[in-house]
């Protein structure tokens, strides 16, 4: 690690400690070029397992922004007018503090990454590796949206806020906004806080307490007796905030309501993700655990003491590579939490027969036009791929459609029902969309029988689903599902080849830091073919996983279709 990076780290650690953070069994240090900084265990892990404690006062939250002595009043006015939301407030705050010459947050901001691995930061060539995937289109739309928000709103707002600080010279650029947006989405925490901390109680004249008016809750903050100190210039600043890490184990007071608040918490947000996490975070509202009231702490999840110099990782949640890459800029090879998204395009309904009638049915049935298919669903299908703790199956869902009507029960319950891995809400949508003209007539007649000639009542969701099932069974829906999966596979392979070709690329890959490094290593053509940026490697891992899941779920759908046809369903 370069001397400048060591100096930044030392300065940040001092800043944390001066502002009340306590390192009790860990420290922050540089991991590698992929992870950046991380938290590592040190000698003498405490018996209670608490490794790090950070006061909630240090969190960057919407309440802190609205109470900021410099930009709070202006932000509050925009917030109350509905011009900005809570997340946008924090992104604005990050941009302004990054551009301010004497920011109290400089030790923290200097430690944050300046480039990211999520697709909005990809080069054009790297982005092409995602063609055919859900992320490719999503990234294109996201970049357009971010540029539009920057031009229409961010640029002028940031200039306006900087002028309040007497700075009319600093120039904001799109990269500042992109940076702040990525910092928020990759590091934002979701913290359960005591209601009284987020919305302090107001005493009325009679001496009773009444909560802050709901209309002002979003812009109300706790007041503190002590203010954190920035050692750079000795300047004191008000701290009004709180925050949390996604998927942590939380500890909340049983005596009052919990309020979830998003934000950034310096220190704890340096924990990296691992499927086998060794720590979790918790909130100590009373100080009974850490002796620091209103704090957040990192605690070991292991029964035995942590080995010295072991990285203290947490879990960001059961996230597939699509979400990990889009939000955090990394993937997990052979991710057990991977999933496939399938959807029927809403605009295509206009081109099918009886589109208006089917559209009304879809609404009344509360059918889903898209679904997520987690990898572990396959463990309950016709061709199990491994063991899983997933307990999901669709038997009870599907059985709900079997009701006692004069026209019900004629269609035999499928033998394959317990092995069908596709969600019933999505199957309901596909059955409705795939109905033939004569089946539409049957459904209409069945529903007329239920509501009566005078239309005394409306059929229920279950009744409509049952009628559709009785009229058309599963074969039409399963054929449509097979078509959707085949189209998805075609899109994936047309853009980047087969699953096997991706595996070959990964097997021969030599990962380098970024695209710029790649162009500087052209001495040997053979070696050059094997070199790839980490962004490209992540893209190939993600798209290979999508091809694998498409292949496996297509196999399930094709087998279910064969059984459905053979059983007359």
From TrEMBL:
It comes from the Eukaryota. Signal peptide: none annotated. Transmembrane segments: none annotated. CDD domains: SET_LSMT (cd10527). GO terms for molecular function: protein-lysine N-methyltransferase activity. This is Protein-lysine N-methyltransferase EFM1-like isoform X1. It comes from Gossypium hirsutum. The gene is LOC107951648.
């Amino acid at each position: 690690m370069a001397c400048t990076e060591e100096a930044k780290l030392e300065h940040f650690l001092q800043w944390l400690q001066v502002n009340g953070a306590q390192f009790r069994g860990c420290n922050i240090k540089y991991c590698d070029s992929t992870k950046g900084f991380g938290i590592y265990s040190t000698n003498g892990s405490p018996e209670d397992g608490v490794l790090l404690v950070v006061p909630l006062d240090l969190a960057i939250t919407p309440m802190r922004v609205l109470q900021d002595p410099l930009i709070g009043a202006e932000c509050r006015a925009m917030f109350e007018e509905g011009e900005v939301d809570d997340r946008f407030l924090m992104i604005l705050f990050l941009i302004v503090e990054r551009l301010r010459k004497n920011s109290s947050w400089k030790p923290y901001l200097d430690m944050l990454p300046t480039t990211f691995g999520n697709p909005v930061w990809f080069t054009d060539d790297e982005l092409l590796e995602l063609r055919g995937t859900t992320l490719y289109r999503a990234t294109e739309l996201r970049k357009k949206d971010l540029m539009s928000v920057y031009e229409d709103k961010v640029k002028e707002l940031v200039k306006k806020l900087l002028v309040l600080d007497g700075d009319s010279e600093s120039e904001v650029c799109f990269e500042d906004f992109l940076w702040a947006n990525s910092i928020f989405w990759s590091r934002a925490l979701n913290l359960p806080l005591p209601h009284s901390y987020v919305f302090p109680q107001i005493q009325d004249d009679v001496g009773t307490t009444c909560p802050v008016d709901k209309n002002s809750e979003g812009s109300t903050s706790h007041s503190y007796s002590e203010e954190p100190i920035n050692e750079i210039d000795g300047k004191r600043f008000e701290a009004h905030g709180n925050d949390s890490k996604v998927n942590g184990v939380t500890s909340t007071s049983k005596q009052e309501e919990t309020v979830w608040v998003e934000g950034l918490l310096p220190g704890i947000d340096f924990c990296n993700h691992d499927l086998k996490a060794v720590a979790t975070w918790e909130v100590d509202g009373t100080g009974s655990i850490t002796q620091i009231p209103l704090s957040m702490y990192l605690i070991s999840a292991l029964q035995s003491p942590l080995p010295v110099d072991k990285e203290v990782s947490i879990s960001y949640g059961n996230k597939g590579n699509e979400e990990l890459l889009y939000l955090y800029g990394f993937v997990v090879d052979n991710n057990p939490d991977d999933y496939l998204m399938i959807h029927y395009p809403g605009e295509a309904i206009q081109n099918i027969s009886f589109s208006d009638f089917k559209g009304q049915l879809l609404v009344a049935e509360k059918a889903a036009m898209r679904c997520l298919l987690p990898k572990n669903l396959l463990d309950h299908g016709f061709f199990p791929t491994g063991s899983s703790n997933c307990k999901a199956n669709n038997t009870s869902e599907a059985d709900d459609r079997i009701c006692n009507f004069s026209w019900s029960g004629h269609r035999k319950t499928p033998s394959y029902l317990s092995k069908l891995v596709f969600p019933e809400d999505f199957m309901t949508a596909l059955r409705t969309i795939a109905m033939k003209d004569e089946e539409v007539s049957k459904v209409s007649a069945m529903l007329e029988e239920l509501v009566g000639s005078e239309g005394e009542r409306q059929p229920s969701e279950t009744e409509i689903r049952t009628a559709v099932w009785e009229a058309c069974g599963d074969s039409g829906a399963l054929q449509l599902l097979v078509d959707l999966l085949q189209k998805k596979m075609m899109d994936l392979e047309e853009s980047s080849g087969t699953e096997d070709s991706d595996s070959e690329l990964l097997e021969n890959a030599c990962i380098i830091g970024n695209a710029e490094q790649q162009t500087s290593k052209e001495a040997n053509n053979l070696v050059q073919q094997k070199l790839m940026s980490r962004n490209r490697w992540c893209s190939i891992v993600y798209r290979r996983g999508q091809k694998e899941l498409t292949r496996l779920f297509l196999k399930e759908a094709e087998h279910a279709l064969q059984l459905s046809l053979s059983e007359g369903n």
